[in-house]
TrEMBL record, chain A:
Keywords assigned by UniProt, alphabetized: Cell membrane, Membrane, Transmembrane, Transmembrane helix, Transport
Topology relative to the membrane: Multi-pass membrane protein
Subcellular location: Cell membrane
Keyword DNA repair: no
Pfam short name (any one): CbiM
Keyword Acetylation: no
Source organism, top-level taxon: Bacteria
InterPro entries per the UniProt record, alphabetical: CbiM/NikMN
Cited Gene3D superfamilies: 1.10.1760.20
Protein name: Energy-coupling factor ABC transporter permease
TM stretches of this protein: 12-36, 48-66, 78-104, 116-138, 145-170, 190-210
UniProtKB/TrEMBL annotation, chain B:
Keyword presence, Disulfide bond: no
NCBIfam families attached to this UniProt entry: ECF_T_CbiQ
PANTHER family membership: SLL0384 PROTEIN (PTHR34857:SF2)
Primary location group: membrane
Residues spanning the signal sequence: none
Location(s) in or outside the cell: Cell membrane
Pfam families: CbiQ
Name assigned to this protein: Cobalt ECF transporter T component CbiQ
Topology term for the membrane: Multi-pass membrane protein
Transmembrane feature ranges: 44-61, 68-88, 108-128, 182-201, 235-255
CDD domains tied to this protein: EcfT
Protein keywords: Cell membrane, Membrane, Transmembrane, Transmembrane helix
Lineage per the UniProt record: Bacteria, Bacillati, Actinomycetota, Actinomycetes, Micromonosporales
């Protein structure tokens, strides 16, 4: 099951449920577009592109777990939420998924609504809520930031995997024999392991960016009152 | 399913399918896939019909079966799963999947195999006949919100930046005496990933500022959009495949 876990391919979930989630994803993404448009300034536009490219590249790393048939990959929702905010972040992940489905056949086109709901919406939303919470609770040190990124990334992967369990419960095409708890447990366990990898990558990346260019980290913008004027956009070479 | 994510899938050619505007191809591919998914899984003949459609388009696009089938191997992980579905009796995950009903398992396996394969083949055909640039032009013409096409444009552009930076950093590591064999590479990779991101961003930012100073306003120049938008005739030509697929799907639903 986990082979298909994150990128649900055609035929795993039945048509009506896929259609419902497609409508849901469309409504939510419209909201993200409206909010994201306001966020997308000169600094965020290239960052959003890079975050999407980074997620695209990172999703190619498949972690084989237990056997060859079981694997999963990184999602990048937490990284996106941290660096470009929840609205643009969800859009970044959605763009990655659309391009993958259209030209790489990774995840069925008809299942796009399900995949976007799980990874772009659920994953990013869970990550951003955790980030917002943890940044307020934890000390404002590099370690605090690293822990925030790690925990948010790890848990957001697990939340996204449970989205699949919900969808399978609603419209799985093969009967599970009522043993949905087993599926939920397996999914959570496997994705906890993936989440650790995801957490480490997210934490390292965010920490490096925050040290050198704190102005680029969206999640830190609202917290720190800008004492000095922001670093000019043109600062490139160091 | 990670193999070959760089756009190595595009096949340079001048076939009728290549010449079709991208928005037409995207729409046709999406409608085709939805028709396939909507088909009841016991309507075996319908999937034969879809396969014939795919083969016809592939022949028109001059994409050989060998190329198509070898690229379709990204599907292998879940083909393995589908084949295992009706047979494996032990192991808790398979029990979870409810193989008390082996007929249901068989149908489920067939369902995943047929619909998944047809979906992958359809998107491979789109990839083989459309460059990534055209793909974004197509999405733009289909009225995809500009924020999304903008992110997609930068994503595809920065992928090369990212890969280039990664290669440079790797060469730099090797020339300083690092020994990047697979497992040994992991540590360097982990340590370098943040730096890679930052370096790629700073290059990307310069690319973006260069674009801005040349008049970029968030959308590619009008010349991109203006020329070559699909004519009614092209829409009609491309509509044949999805209309045939939809007819098959409706017939199979009515018959079952």
């Amino acid at each position: 099951m986990e082979t298909l876990a994150m990128h649900i391919s055609n035929g795993i979930i039945d048509g009506p449920v896929a259609a419902i989630f497609a409508a849901l994803a469309l409504v939510a993404l419209t909201g993200c577009v409206l909010r994201g448009r306001r966020d997308l300034d000169d600094r965020l536009a290239p960052m959003a592109g890079l975050v999407a490219a980074f997620i695209f590249a990172v999703q190619m790393l498949n972690f084989p777990i237990f056997t060859a048939g079981v694997s999963g990959h990184l999602l990048g929702g937490a990284l996106a939420a941290m660096l470009v905010g929840p609205w643009v972040g969800a859009l970044c992940v959605a763009v990655v998924l659309v391009v993958q489905a259209l030209i790489f056949g990774d995840g069925g086109v008809a299942m796009l609504g399900l995949n976007i709901t799980n990874m772009a919406l659920l994953g990013t939303a869970a990550a951003y809520l955790l980030i917002a919470l943890l940044l307020r609770v934890l000390p404002r040190t590099p370690a605090g930031l690293a822990v925030t990124a790690f925990v948010a990334a790890m848990l957001s992967v697990v939340v996204a995997s449970q989205g699949f369990v919900l969808q399978y419960w609603l419209g799985g095409t093969t009967d599970l024999g009522g043993n949905l708890a087993g599926l939920a447990g397996t999914m959570a366990g496997v994705h906890l392991l993936i989440g650790i990898g995801e957490g480490l990558i997210t934490a390292t990346t965010v920490l490096t960016v925050a040290k050198v260019r704190p102005d680029l980290v969206y999640a830190l913008r609202s917290l720190r009152t800008p004492i000095a004027p922001a670093v000019p956009v043109a600062g490139g070479v160091r | 399913m990670g193999a070959g994510h760089g756009h190595v899938l595009y096949r340079e050619s001048d076939s009728p399918v290549h010449r079709l505007p991208p928005e037409v191809k995207i729409a046709a591919m999406v409608v085709f896939t939805i028709a396939v998914v909507a088909t009841p899984r016991t309507a075996f003949w319908a999937f034969g019909g879809y396969a014939l459609l795919v083969a016809a388009v592939a022949a028109l696009a001059r994409v050989g079966p060998r190329w198509l089938l070898s690229r379709a191997l990204i599907e292998v992980p879940f083909v393995v799963f589908a084949v295992a579905l009706p047979f494996l009796g032990s192991g808790d995950r398979v029990e979870v999947l409810g193989l008390r009903l082996s007929e249901d398992g068989l149908h489920g396996a067939w369902n995943i195999l047929a619909k998944g394969t047809l979906g992958v083949l359809a998107s491979l055909l789109l990839a083989a006949t459309t460059t990534t640039r055209d793909l974004i032009v197509g999405l733009d013409r289909l009225h995809c919100p500009q924020v999304l096409t903008q992110i997609a444009t930068f994503m595809l552009r920065y992928l090369d930046v990212l890969v280039g930076e990664a290669r440079r950093m790797r060469v730099a590591r090797i020339s300083r005496g690092d020994d990047p064999r697979f497992l040994w590479q992991l540590r360097g990779f982990a340590a370098g990933i943040g730096a890679l991101f930052l370096r790629a961003f700073e290059r990307g930012e310069r690319v973006y500022l260069a674009m801005l100073s040349r008049g970029y306003t968030g959308r590619m120049p009008a010349g991109w959009q203006g020329e070559g938008a699909a004519s009614a005739g092209q829409w009609l030509v491309a509509a044949t495949v999805p209309v045939l697929a939809a007819t098959i799907a409706v017939t199979s639903v009515v018959l079952s």
